[in-house]
Task: structure prediction
Amino acid sequence: MNQTRYIELFSNPDSVRLLDIPVLDYPAFLAFLDQLMGEEGTHCVAYFALPQAETFRFICCMAADENHALVIFSHEQPRNPLPSLPSITARHFQFHVFEREIFENTGIKFPDHPWLKPVRFPFQRADHSNIIDNYPFYSIEGEELHEVGVGPIHAGIIEPGYFRFICHGEEVLHLEIQLGFQHRGIEHLFVENQQLLYQSILAENITGDTAIGHSLAFTGVVESLAGIHVSSSLAIERTVALELERIAVHIGDTAALCTDIAYQFGQVVNEALRTIVINTTQLWCGNRFGKGLIRPSKTNYPLSLDIVKVILKNLEEVEKRYLQVTDRIFTLSSVLGRFENMGKLTPKQATLIGTVGMAARSSGMYRDIRWSHPFSAFTDHPYEPAMLQKGDVWSRALLRKLEVEKSIEIIRKLLKNFMIDHSEFQNYETVNQKSNIINSGLAPLSLAISLVEGWRGEICHVAVTDNSGKMAFYKIKDPSLHNWMALALAVRNQEISDFPLCNKSFNLSYCGNDL
Amino acid sequence: MKELTIFRQHGRQFIPDLQKVELPEIFRGRPVISNDLLPEEAGRLHNLCPVKAIGINPCSLDLGKCIFCKECEFQSLGKIKFTNDYRLAVNSRDDLIIVQGMSNPFQLDRKKIREEIRVLFKHALKLRQVSAGGDNSSEMELNAAGNVNFDMGRFGIEFVASPRHADGLVITGPITQNMSAALQLCYDAIPAPKIIILAGSDVISGGIFSGSPALERGFLEKYPVDLYLPGNPVHPLTFIHGVLNLTGYWSSK
Result:
């Protein structure tokens, strides 16, 4: 490969000067992208149009899983007149949501894009005549077909989103998911208020169920731009927090899956186990979701040996009881009758749409940032993902159980190292000095990228700084951005009454998509 | 047999007396501001506070804005101190402002509670929740309020699917433009008399999203609010305590 076509990064997080990202003409960009997409395990983690004085710089960040690298390259287009470009989506469908986002934000058209629909109706969208009430739904003509609309407010206490089903009798032929109701303008706020504390709190409120995952991704971006490497003890603490979050949500989802098949026994036992895990996090930092625990370059809640002991003791209890109850769940024929072959996402579909995270791993895709692009303590402690092949509700349920076991194992391993020489290990930088360094010292005219494997899957944060080292642009990608399409495909040819179960098996984020 | 073993270990999960529960010391509940805090320190904290919840002379902290990050406690070396008191409910917006030296627990203003609330809802209160930009943590905590541990169903409080079946609206999230019309529709669909509960700092003030051009908070200017529950997110105990004091199930203390 020609060295000038791209730049390769081998750390996560990492940053690069904007100057060092090659700019290709569009045909060369597409040709290089085709070449990359031909390689096993390569997928897009960020593709956006960076506004510059007279141009848009389209920056594409590809994760090359097999090489454990990030490949970054770009092309440039004038802002006036707005270009109209052949779409990447027509060649590689996983780009559909990135190009839709670019179209929605800038007005740049992709005439051969097969699905150029709104993503979230952001307040700064290019076309304000597009409002959330007139979303262009797909429809099929037919005397025997009917449509079912659900939302944006749903039956339970969950976030808003709108689902429209096209059904033939009870059978779902097509589901279209309209999002955007949760849009709070978060990417804009990251640039608008550059106080580090403000940004840290914003990051943990992107999706409250992934407070640790997103704040870790933000922290990575800032620390990379400020050239800060945290101590290995802090890296361990962060990783323990991330895995606790994963355990809590996976157990909570096991409960919710039982709820949706009216298996109350499985529900209440798992709910109680989740409570133990989130109360452990609360005992560590005063918040059940870990808000306040992750801060750039420091921590306000150093992990004490007492808390370590509580974590280990509670996890032992949780592990024992969770294994017992899941052993029951996964051997009960009435449960298997509902889970098996339900809501299938085939490996081929999963690859086509660029599925990430536990949904991908349940459909046989070997995709896990902890393995492919290790971050935090995973750089010193290699991780092998748990895998299943079938892609049905059963796989996604069982994978949660496998991941809970693995996460408990990781935490045990990390805390063992942590305890060996605790007094020497835990040397924190003084809080105020470091924060000030960060506020004044981000690398100018640079791009930083940070990937974290949250419990749903891969979270990507990208920040671009201006010539004074201020953040000029911020881009967030929650795993849900890819995976909503997976849900839409999985419910095809299922009965509409099975939708809640399929939906819960993915448990995607509305606010993570809407930002 | 397997079930029996699991049930035995599961034990009795519900908390028998919710009024006696205390949260761990580290929980971030009602703060207290020491009289030792000087105005210049308060000024520094005012500038530090990411949501401008801190007032200067005398020093005050507006829990309707506070997102409970506790940075002011760290930076003031404990002159502002978050206690583990989760009983944060008030029914008057101004009562959320804590002033230097104030350490008395929060209580509801009895005179402001509408008569019909106590007559009609004391033993049965059905609520419709709407997330309008909520980050899913407050939503999960409201779900948890009905789970096996907190079990607020025992007091006759329940979340229902249809607004037609509801006696009131619980709002979470800073109220986004894109959700404002649906929120209004839902409120209109609830039969009168109806109550409004704001759960979380996000909805009370906008929280960390305050000032975002993507919000549309006009709804809150139109109707009286019956209960303010600060938090990020609201703890299930804060919610249950607040609601039961509003309806008079627990006498207001």
In short: Residues 342 and 392 of chain A are 5 Å apart (CA to CA). The first helix of chain A runs from residue 26 to 37. Chain A has two domains: 3-102, 186-514. Chain A touches chain B through 64 residues (CB under 8 Å).
